[in-house]
Amino acid sequence: SQQGEEDPQALSIQEGENATMNCSYKTSINNLQWYRQNSGRGLVHLILIRSNEREKHSGRLRVTLDTSKKSSSLLITASRAADTASYFCATVFGRANWGYQKVTFGTGTKLQVIP
Amino acid sequence: NAGVTQTPKFRVLKTGQSMTLLCAQDMNHEYMYWYRQDPGMGLRLIHYSVGEGTTAKGEVPDGYNVSRLKKQNFLLGLESAAPSQTSVYFCATNPGSGANVLTFGAGSRLTVL
User: Fold this and answer.
1) Cα torsion through B4, B5, B6, B7, rounded to 10
2) Which of A99-103, B17-21, B41-45, B86-90 has the least mean pLDDT?
């Protein structure tokens, strides 16, 4: 399976601290995405990094990608209580024309930010 | 603009009963997906569709059927529900061009007794 694995499974930090989550995957990808899921809700796309990129920023989010190690990390800086959620990495792989690209999700990291 | 709407949000079934989950999108997206989410398992792809009238199997298709008769709707059917199908089901869409960014519905929680 192409499924990514997130690490840690759960993370608890104080408000204002940084949170780092890691994702490892198995084979070559076209891009890697991170999604957020609030309790009882659907997933929401946060950020995408392509296979030829090494780092991407969006607001308080920083994503890195190391294709040689087949791993990615998501850093949330200056965390807030509202960041409490589960975070999933998703790998996109296969032929780069529509119909052959597949998206598979990891098992997620549950983040709790304590006020 | 509702995005992706799933109905029903909750359902309790007895073993052997049948039901259909409806996913409706108003974004004119080509691709639609059904995932199930179980504790510790992440999201697993059940079936997907790359356009009106097409369907394809995902990772865990057994026990489910789908149809995409209209571009905006993607139906997931359980012909004979089993307790192993107790899960939260998510529908997702993407435009069919670009990087495969998914837009998700809010989920449908199904319990099979």
Assistant:
1) -160
2) A99-103
Which residue type, as a one-letter code, is found at position A49? I
Point out which residues pair with A58 in neighbouring strands: A61
Which residues of chain B are at the A interface, by a Cβ-Cβ cutoff of 8 Å? 4, 30-31, 33, 35, 40-45, 50, 59, 90, 92, 96-97, 99-107
Range among A2-11, A56-65, B46-55 rated most confident:
A56-65
Q: Is a pLDDT exceeding 90 seen at residue B41?
A: no
Residue entry with tokens 């009963």: B17
CB pairs under 8 A between A and B: 60
Query: How far away is chain B from the Cα of A7, in angstroms, using its nearest Cα?
Result: 12
φ, ψ at B83 (rounded to 5°): -55, -30
Look at A98 and B105 and tell me if their CB atoms are within 8 Å.
Answer: no
Query: CA torsion angle for B37, B43, B49, B55 (degrees, to 10)?
Result: -70
Q: Which helix (H) or strand (E) holds A45?
A: strand A43-50
Tell me the C-alpha distance between A29 and A44, whole Å: 21
| Residue B85: strand, helix, or coil | helix
Q: Which pLDDT belongs to residue A3?
A: 64
